[in-house]
Each structure stands twice: as structure tokens, then as C-alpha cells.
Amino acid sequence: MTINQSQTNPSVNAINNSDALQRIRIFDTTLRDGEQSPGATLAPEQKIILARQLAKLGVDIIEPGFPISSPGDFAAVQQISRELHNVEIVGFARAMKVDIDAAVRATADAARRRLHLFISSSDIHLDFQLKKTREQVMQIAREMVAYGKQFVDEIEFSPMDASRSGREFVIEMVEAVIAEGATVINLPDTLGYAMPEEYEEMFRSVRRQARGGDKVVFSAHCHNDLGLAVANSLAAIRGGATQVEVTVNGIGERAGNCSLEELVMAIETRKSAIGVQTGIVTSEIYETSRMVSRAMNFPIAYNKPIVGRNAFQHESGIHQDGLLKNRNTFEIMDPEAMGIPRSMIVLGKHSGRHAIKHRLNEFGITLNEEQLVDVYNRFIAKADELKLVPDNELIRLASESTDMQHDPYSLVHLQVMAGTNESRIASVTIRERDSQEDSNFTGTGKGPLEAVIHCIQQAIPEAGEFEDLELHSLSTGEDARGEAIVSIVHNNVRYRGTAIHNDIILAAAQAYVAACNQQLLSGQTSDAKQGA
């Protein structure tokens, strides 16, 4: 019997026309709330670069900073307001005239702007933080929204800690600020405390009971203290929110905010079931994630959904076999559609012969059955030692089995002079496959790695541009091994090399050579396919 998808999931056919889907506006606060994460401070020029990328990503609204907090933040918000005309720019302010004045001045040149005011609403905040009564806070909210309305048309108001506040008081406060001219009501789960069903119901009841609630936009702002930020944001959408406030990589105070990429891809992947859509350019997700991670010096967890290193990598032989036959067997999203390089097969002790053969074929290396068995046996032994077997190591195993060098270049020797002097000196010996000749190169750099890279670039002049280096410790103690992952770019294609060694400089050098070899081998394979 044939069962179509609509029989097993009736919602698939519920909405077939994307034009009928409601648009959820994405409010990005990476540069404001995200920067409040300890250690994530950005220089003004970094904020401007990231804001350009966020606009390219397709976010609807950008909150670039807290203008009153520092001259640098004020300057960054001002420059972003002047430069980016296709997104709405938000000036963030406490419910205080001095904050509002700074936010208004900073966003004065924006093509579209908004003032975002907040004040606490929960009793615990009022009693211990503000030391004010509900009546006093209500009066401040009214006066400051009215004051801000003199300068801007769009005013967003946030009763901070709304999810832990009395529902009746939140409704009363929302009614008051709507009466004074607020156009967007944000109901934040400031401490990540709410359960999805509670958060959804809060939106339903406030929208239904607050006078004027049918004339304003409702927004969700969720923190991830209980790991529920994305779930709560989706619940808010079910409750009537049409704007969600997010950060790239889920960066933010404590456990962070609702992750832009997770929310967007949940909506994109389950669009028919959820019944909404966003305007995000998904192909820019990965590049945006990498830019934010680098600028803030915040590494991305291996198992981070969507953009984590392991999100689209598979070691299990069963999974690898299924993926090679049909990607949809073990993947619900296409990583390449998000700008993520295709590297779905990770070779480890759970990998099978099919995956090993497939990976070697990608580099133009073909083995007969006897050679494949020999490589597989060598591979399993190496996998027990290294846990994961990088491509350069697999190619080396294939070279041993076939008694021929497959890598165009191999690193034979490396030496680095380090010390307190300004420059470091390195020398390397590189063996070229076709001639089997060894050549020596020397180079200098501010650090030992830079000196080594300069040497290798002399040896492999056709290599792509060195883009990125990741270093990870795989063990502890004096004999700890480090894993180096090097990315290079050639003709807009990214290649990655990986190496593992006790000496991290040597590991990085081997990874760089491995990335260059991948580029060259992939080019040869492509040429061969075109010729065929």
C-alpha cells in the first residue's frame, strides 16, 4: 500500500501557497542583547560590519546597541542608522528621558526607526531592583511613552520580566502604553522561566483582554535559561505574536537568547505545519554565524543545531550508507541551502567501507577490493587511536596500501624558532608527488604559525586563500593532542583540512597542507569528470 505524506501528516497540505502564509518579522538584537553576554564586547567598527551582514541576511529590524551606554555604542548606532536604509533601526532605552534623548539622536538619520522602551513589571523586580510601587512604575511607563512619541512614530514597549509578572498588571500596563502611542508590545520572558503553554496563553490573554490590543504588533523576546527559547518563541507565534526577537548563534546574557538560525529553520522546515514564514535569506545563515562567532570570540558548540560542527556530520556506518543513497534518510534540512559546506561523512571507528570508498573516490583515488580491505583494516586501527580519522590521514593510509603517493604535496619536515623576538622564523621541507623531489622553504611571521604558513604558501603557490583555523584539545595532560582544522577558499569554494598531533603548530601545518591537497585533488577529479 502506498501512503503519501499528507496521510501521515495532514498539515502538509494545509497550506500549499506560500503567499497565504503569515509573515513573521525577525527583530535581531545580536548587537545589543547579544553583546551583553560576558566577554562578547564589540568595537564600533565590528558592529557596523556585522550590521551590514545582518541586512544581507534579510532581518527586518536591527537593534544595534544601547546608545546611552557608551560613546562607542552611540557612534555605532548612528553610523548604522545612516548607512542601512532597507531595515528598521531600533534605539534602545530605559524608561528615562536621558536614555530616550540619546536613542533619538543616535537614530535620527535612519530611513525607518523605532524607539524601544522598557521597565520592569514583576513584583520581585519592583521590590528589589527599582524599589517602586506598581502605581509609580505605571506612571513612568505612561509618561516616557508619551515623551518618546514626540520624536518617533514607532514605539515598542517591553514590560521586563513579563512572564513572572501578575497577568492583570501586565494587561493594565499594556493598555496604558497603547493609549499613549505604543505601536509594538513586547512580552519578554526575561529569565527564560516560562513553559511554552504558559507563554502562548499569556499572548492570547493580553491580546484579547488589553484594550487596543487588536491595533498593535505583539513581539516575543525569549531567553534560554531552561533551553526553551525557541519553543517559547514558536508558542508566542501560536499565541498571536508576529515579531520575534532573536540573536545569531543564540548569543546573549546567561544562557543566551532565542537563536535566529534555529527559529528560522524550524519555521522553514515545518512551514506547512506552523503556517508562517520569514524573509530570511537562508543561504547567508552560515556566514553570518561564523562572522558573529569570530567577532565575539565565542566558539560554537559542536552539537549546536543548524550551525554546529556536528549538525550535518555522520559517523555511524548505517547513517552514512543511508545518506549516500538518499540524503533525506537522515537529514531534514539541506546544509548547502544555508551556506554550510557539504561534509556530511565523518570517518571514525563506526564508519563502514562504503563511506571510506566514497571519500577516497572524491579525491580521485580508486581501490580494488583487496586494497579496500587493507585500507579498512588500517583505518579501524587508526580510528581507535585518533577517534576521528582526518582526510589527510585516510589518504596516507591509501598511499601505504597502494604503495604510491596520492597527495600532490606532503610535509616532510618542519622547524620553528620561537622566542621573545618580534619575528618568528620557520623552515619546512615539502615533497612534490610527481617529481618526488624535496624542496626547502623558509619564512617569517609575527607568530610561529604565520611563519609556517608563509613557508607552505611558497611551496604551493596555487593554494587557495587561508581563511580560518580552529584548534581543539582532544585530551588533557602534558601529552595532550590537539586537533587543527584549516579552511581555505578557492574560486568561492571552501576546502577544509584536519590533522591531529601533540604539537599544535605541526597539526596546523599538516591541516593546511591537507586543505591545499583537497583543493588540488578536487580540481583534478572535476577535470577528469568533464573530460569523460
UniProtKB/TrEMBL annotation:
Q: Which SUPFAM superfamilies match?
A: 2-isopropylmalate synthase LeuA, allosteric (dimerisation) domain, Aldolase
Known EC number? 2.3.3.13
Q: Where is the signal peptide?
A: none
Assigned keywords, A-Z: Amino-acid biosynthesis, Branched-chain amino acid biosynthesis, Leucine biosynthesis, Manganese, Metal-binding, Transferase
Q: Name one GO biological process term.
A: L-leucine biosynthetic process
Superkingdom of origin: Bacteria
GO MF annotation: an example: 2-isopropylmalate synthase activity
Which InterPro entries does the record associate with it? 2-IPM_HCS-like (IPR050073), 2-isopropylmalate_synth_dimer (IPR013709), AIPM/Hcit_synth_CS (IPR002034), Aldolase_TIM (IPR013785), LeuA/HCS_post-cat (IPR054691), LeuA_allosteric_dom_sf (IPR036230), LeuA_bact_synth (IPR005671), PYR_CT (IPR000891)
Name the pathway. Amino-acid biosynthesis; L-leucine biosynthesis; L-leucine from 3-methyl-2-oxobutanoate: step 1/4
- Span-the-membrane segments of this chain are none
UniProt lists the family membership as follows: Belongs to the alpha-IPM synthase/homocitrate synthase family. LeuA type 1 subfamily.
Q: What is this protein called?
A: 2-isopropylmalate synthase
Organism whose genome encodes this protein: Paenibacillus baekrokdamisoli
